[in-house]
C-alpha cells in the first residue's frame, strides 16, 4: 500500500507551523534600527521613540521577547512530540531577526508547502491580525518573485484564529490570577491590563464581530468568574490599558493603568493584582510598563500590588494551542471534503473567532484601505 502521510498526520493538510511574532532587539545596537522598523510610517513622535529606546536600554538593550518565543517554540515542539504529531515549528518575526520571510524561505527549501501561522497576539485588531497578514502577504510576494513558486504546489499560508477566548488561554490566565491572589489580602481588586490602541483602530476592530476592548472584557469576565468560583468569592475587577504611544491629540483606549491605580487608591482600595491578559509573555510592555512603571505607581500610592504571570509556556496554554492546531487542521480537511467543520472551542459570550478573515477585518481605520493586500483572508484586497 502506498504510504500516504496526509492520512496519518492529525495536523494534515499542514506540514509546518510558523510561530509568528513581533520581534525585539538582541542588544543595544539593535534598538534604534528595530524601533525604526516598528514605527515606519506610523506617526509616532520622536520623543516617544527616544523614551521607548530608554526602556530597552534600561534592560541592557535586549528585549526578553526573543528568548520567550524560543521557549514557546520548544514547549510547542514538546507538546506535539508528546502527542506523536510530526509538525516542525518555525519562528519568524515582523520587526526583527529572524524575519518571517527568511523563516518561510527556509520552510520552502525544506519542502514545506502548506504552513499554519500561530501569531503571538491573542486578540483581534489591526495590530494583532491584519498587520501580521499584510506582512505575510509581502513576504510571500517577495519569495514568489525570488524563488518562482511551482504553480502546482505554491507555498500556502493560513493563520490560526485569534485565540483570546480559547479554553486553554482562559484556563492559563485563571491559574495565574488565582496564584497571584494568593499573595495579597483577600479583598484585593483585580486589574486586567492590555495594550492600548487608538480609538480609530478599536472602531475598525468591530468589523470582525466584537471590538478589541469587548474581546478583553469577555476574557476578563470569564477569568474573574472562574477564579471567583475556585476561591469561593466574588471578585471585583476592572480593565485598564498600558503602553499608549502616538501623538497626545489622538485618542487611545483608556483608562491608563497608572490613572486607574490612582483612582482606585482614592476610593480606598488597598491591594491589587495586575493581570496582563493582553500579552502572552513577559516582554518589554510587561517588564517595563507594568513591572517598572505601574508597580512604582502602586508603591507611591501605598497600594500593595502583585503582577500575575502571563500565560508564557504554562501547560494549559500550550496544550490549548496544540488543540487549536488540530481543530484547524480538521476544519480544513472537512472543507476539502465538502463537509461543514465543527464549531471551534470557546468560552465566554463570544463565538470562536474566524480562521479566514472576512472582508474589512481588522483595518487600521474603518473603511480606509491601507493600500497593502493581506494574506489569510477571503479576499486579500479587502
Ligand atoms: C495591541 C498591541 C500589542 C499586543 C498584542 C501583541 O502582543 O502582539 C502590541 C505588542 C507589542 N508591541 C511591542 C513593541 C512596540 N509597539 C509599538 C507601537 C504600537 N503597538 C501597538 C499595539 C500593540 N502592540 C500600537 C497600536 C502601536 C503604535 C504604532 C502602530 O500604530 O502600529 C512600538 C513603537 C514605540 C511605541 O510607541 O511604543 C514598540 C517598540 C512589542 C515588543 C515588545 C518587546 O520588545 O519586548 C509587543 C509584543
Ligand atoms: Fe482579522
TrEMBL record:
<protein>
    <recommendedName>
        <fullName>Coproporphyrin III ferrochelatase</fullName>
        <ecNumber>4.99.1.9</ecNumber>
    </recommendedName>
</protein>
<dbReference type="GO" id="GO:0005737">
    <property type="term" value="C:cytoplasm"/>
</dbReference>
<keyword id="KW-0479">Metal-binding</keyword>
<dbReference type="Pfam" id="PF00762">
    <property type="entry name" value="Ferrochelatase"/>
</dbReference>
<dbReference type="GO" id="GO:0006783">
    <property type="term" value="P:heme biosynthetic process"/>
</dbReference>
<comment type="function">
    <text>Involved in coproporphyrin-dependent heme b biosynthesis. Catalyzes the insertion of ferrous iron into coproporphyrin III to form Fe-coproporphyrin III.</text>
</comment>
<keyword id="KW-0456">Lyase</keyword>
<feature type="binding site">
    <location>
        <position position="132"/>
    </location>
    <ligand>
        <name>Fe-coproporphyrin III</name>
    </ligand>
</feature>
<comment type="similarity">
    <text>Belongs to the ferrochelatase family.</text>
</comment>
<feature type="binding site">
    <location>
        <position position="195"/>
    </location>
    <ligand>
        <name>Fe(2+)</name>
    </ligand>
</feature>
<keyword id="KW-0408">Iron</keyword>
<dbReference type="GO" id="GO:0004325">
    <property type="term" value="F:ferrochelatase activity"/>
</dbReference>
<feature type="binding site">
    <location>
        <position position="285"/>
    </location>
    <ligand>
        <name>Fe(2+)</name>
    </ligand>
</feature>
<dbReference type="GO" id="GO:0046872">
    <property type="term" value="F:metal ion binding"/>
</dbReference>
<dbReference type="InterPro" id="IPR033644">
    <property type="entry name" value="Ferrochelatase_C"/>
</dbReference>
<keyword id="KW-0627">Porphyrin biosynthesis</keyword>
<dbReference type="InterPro" id="IPR001015">
    <property type="entry name" value="Ferrochelatase"/>
</dbReference>
<comment type="pathway">
    <text>Porphyrin-containing compound metabolism; protoheme biosynthesis.</text>
</comment>
<keyword id="KW-0963">Cytoplasm</keyword>
<dbReference type="InterPro" id="IPR033659">
    <property type="entry name" value="Ferrochelatase_N"/>
</dbReference>
<feature type="binding site">
    <location>
        <position position="63"/>
    </location>
    <ligand>
        <name>Fe-coproporphyrin III</name>
    </ligand>
</feature>
<keyword id="KW-0350">Heme biosynthesis</keyword>
Amino acid at each position: 500500500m502506498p504510504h500516504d502521510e496526509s492520512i496519518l498526520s492529525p495536523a494534515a493538510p499542514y506540514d509546518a507551523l510558523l510561530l509568528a511574532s513581533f520581534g525585539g532587539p538582541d542588544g543595544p545596537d539593535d534598538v534604534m534600527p528595530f524601533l525604526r522598523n516598528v514605527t515606519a510610517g506610523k506617526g509616532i513622535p520622536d520623543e516617544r521613540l527616544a523614551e521607548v529606546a530608554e526602556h530597552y536600554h534600561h534592560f541592557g538593550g535586549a528585549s526578553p521577547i526573543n528568548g520567550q518565543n524560543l521557549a514557546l517554540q520548544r514547549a510547542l515542539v514538546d507538546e506535539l512530540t508528546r502527542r506523536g504529531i510530526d509538525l516542525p515549528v518555525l519562528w519568524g518575526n515582523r520587526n526583527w531577526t529572524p524575519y518571517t520571510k527568511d523563516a518561510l524561505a527556509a520552510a520552502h527549501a525544506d519542502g514545506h508547502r502548506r504552513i499554519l501561522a500561530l501569531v503571538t497576539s491573542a486578540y483581534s485588531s489591526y495590530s494583532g491580525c491584519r498587520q501580521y497578514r499584510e506582512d505575510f502577504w509581502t513576504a510571500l510576494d517577495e519569495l514568489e518573485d525570488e524563488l518562482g513558486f511551482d504553480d502546482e504546489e505554491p507555498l500556502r499560508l493560513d493563520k490560526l484564529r485569534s485565540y483570546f477566548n480559547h479554553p486553554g488561554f482562559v484556563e492559563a490566565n485563571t491559574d495565574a490570577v488565582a496564584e497571584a491572589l494568593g499573595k495579597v489580602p483577600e479583598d484585593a481588586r483585580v486589574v486586567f491590563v492590555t495594550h492600548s490602541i487608538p480609538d480609530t483602530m478599536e472602531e475598525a476592530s468591530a468589523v470582525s464581530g466584537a471590538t478589541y476592548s469587548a474581546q478583553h472584557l469577555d476574557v476578563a469576565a470569564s477569568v474573574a468568574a472562574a477564579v471567583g468560583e475556585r476561591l469561593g468569592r466574588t471578585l471585583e475587577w476592572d480593565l485598564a490599558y498600558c503602553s499608549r504611544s502616538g501623538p497626545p491629540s489622538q485618542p487611545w483606549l483608556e483608562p491608563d493603568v497608572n490613572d486607574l491605580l490612582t483612582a482606585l487608591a482614592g476610593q480606598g482600595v488597598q491591594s491589587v493584582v495586575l493581570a496582563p491578559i493582553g500579552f502572552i509573555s513577559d516582554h518589554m510592555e510587561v517588564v517595563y510598563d507594568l513591572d517598572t512603571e505601574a508597580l512604582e505607581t502602586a508603591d507611591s500610592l501605598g497600594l500593595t500590588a502583585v503582577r500575575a504571570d502571563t500565560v508564557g509556556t504554562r501547560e494549559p496554554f500550550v496544550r490549548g494551542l496544540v488543540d487549536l492546531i488540530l481543530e484547524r487542521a480538521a476544519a480544513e480537511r472537512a472543507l476539502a471534503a465538502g463537509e461543514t467543520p465543527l464549531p471551534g472551542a470557546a468560552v465566554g459570550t463570544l463565538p470562536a473567532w474566524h480562521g479566514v478573515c472576512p472582508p474589512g477585518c481588522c483595518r487600521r481605520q474603518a473603511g480606509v484601505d491601507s493600500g497593502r493586500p493581506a494574506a489569510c483572508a477571503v479576499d486579500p484586497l479587502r
